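As a warm-up, study this chain.
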Amino acid sequence: MTLNAKIAVLLKIHNRLLAMCLISAVILYSAFLTSASADTSEESLSKGLLDMSLEELLNINVQSSSFFQMEKNRAPGYVTIIDEEDVNESSVRTLADAINHFVPGAQSSRRFFGALVGQRGISIDVNSKTAVLLDGTNLNQRTHMGYMLPLLLPFLNDMERIEVFNGPSGLVHGTGAISGYINLIPKNGRDHPGVESQVEWGIEEQLFKTEISYGGFGKNSEWFAYLGMVTSDGLRPSQEGPLGLTKSNDSTTPPTKEFPDGLPDQYDHFGAFAPVNWKASFNWRWNNLQVYTEFMDVYLNVDDLIDGPNGSRGLEWIIDKNGNRTFIEAVDRDYPITRTHTHLLVRPKYKFEFSSDESLEFVGSFYVVDSGTYDTDRGYKEIHPGENPLRAHNIPSEIEYSLKTIYRKTISAKYAFAAGGAVSSRAFYDQKSFFKSEGLGVELRENGREQSLREESIFSWLEYSAFSEFVYSPGSKTTVLVGGRYDGVRYFDEQFRGSPWLWNKSHSAFSPRFSIAHELKEGESIKFSYQRGFRNPDMANMEKGVVGNVEPEKMDSFEVNYSFSKGRGVHWDLNAYFNRLHNTIGWNSGANNGFANMPKSFSVFGTEVILNYAPDDNREFFLIYSYSRPVDFPKEIAFESDFKGVIHVNADRNVFSNFPAHQIKTAYLHRFFNGKLLVNLSLNQWYQKDDISYMKAHPAYKSSRTELDLALRYKISDSFALKLIGQNLTEDTHALPHYNSGATKPPVGWGDRVFYLQLQYRFK
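Now compare it with the structure written out below.
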């Protein structure tokens, strides 16, 4: 396809999207413009997070679980809000850390693709079931991996807060929000004027990071600019790590080649950010127009293959229903590689405010992603001296245009209504990079011949939706929400690897929701929610689907939340849920060897207990306990069906192998000397029963893991602060449980104790 032809295709898609969304906006406006004027208006955040008491923080308005902002105790389901001060006063450095420290029923672990997020008993090898959002705009890569590598970046200083929802939310966020979502809400210049900066040094990894931002505002405008950069040499673990990387003849430890210190050479680059990784963002608003722009470039060494028999890189095993283990070679590559992720997001938003009670909002996005593997010069030249290195390899790319309209109308003190529609088009490219030109355009084959890479789009789709939500408040103590959403996707106009069955193939899904919240008395409330989430098959699911018959997967969720405050600074939340999963997409390792929907549905139930205690301004304590368990998961799927390669359960019947049945997260914070010195000690534990008959993973992933972290911060002045972070102080060598079908991709090095020193500066 020529350049002019590609431009014509993109213009055609763009014009189609624009026309459809403008028509939907006109229809909505015409239908509702004659509605009665409202008696009340939508509430907004009127106080800064740092100025709120415990009770106010627990009842802060939630932005992302409904089309209306509403108090946390009225919003459907349970939402965890992580604000800027939570991060500054803890050992949290990354989004993955924040999930592990603050979110009940959720965990983030490490795989060679990056960080994995598991929620309420569900954890798979990619993040496609959890939607990562930027103020409601979906950031998931749709080739297959979701949003993984950026979760490990230590860049959080441009975020106002993070809202994490456990459970489906198809009504508001559409495809991908099936297990839950993570919504990143960026800072603005009005709430964060002046200069903020942070410099960090990672002692073990020789990590250096700097973040700087500047915010300002005028009469009708505001702006917030941010730049973060990080580089790291990585670390060489001081101990063998969770897998015992030494020669062994027993049935649980894979053999390795001999090295002077027992470790393969590539481990001295574990966790390396190389070269400089950076993120830049700009959030600008003028009157009712807001434009957010973000560029991110990540290179992280996360390939942790170990040496197998005969010098091969990688080793896996197969296991039968009796727990017998047989080692097999898995020769993927013979030199270290680096994962890479680069994206550009432009998100304009404009709101027509017809009155204080009626508005029509347009939200657009332009999103381009490169995400894949990048082979290093060092690794390639060591194995193939004298040859030109393969500089870039396996970097699929995506480009998306989207536009969403939302009409909101507050009819009276009792009634409010929202409706809208969205449309997006996404195209996928095989080996074409939008940002990484070095080494691209040719592909180095084993025989040394060069072959031109295909640059035209190999696959594309058009997604569209219509949604509505009705809010009814019969009194000051009760809120009822009812809503529904229809989503469709059509795969069109492309010959996809010679598979004509994909032409004009389409799927659709309907996502209902019902929620009722009631305040029993002051400080005590209860709510019930029913919600559905779904996920359209991603590109890889269709590419490697079993004869193309991969249908959308969905989850129905029933949840009860009880919240109450008792005495001074004591607040409890009790959650109970029951989730039913249908048409779950998994890898079918049978004769067809591709993605397919599982033949049986199954359920997960669980509970979460959250305690927040702040007796005074200088002491804070929280405790979270979470438990999850599938109740009707068919054992034959794990061992006797074609899905045994991806569906595993432990003795607690937690699915997708090794989601910890029990989680305990706790922290104690104390401020000394009028708040100048802060000490935060946190203890997190992940535990599940040890029963190999239900598992297909290394024993290191079956045992409980306990992580003790420490944060010390001293305010030198109102502008300067010095902070020391220590993670895994007890050097627990057990791996954090996650999806893992063999010994080839463990988070080696996580058994080490690591320290980071930060210098923080703020001037307003």
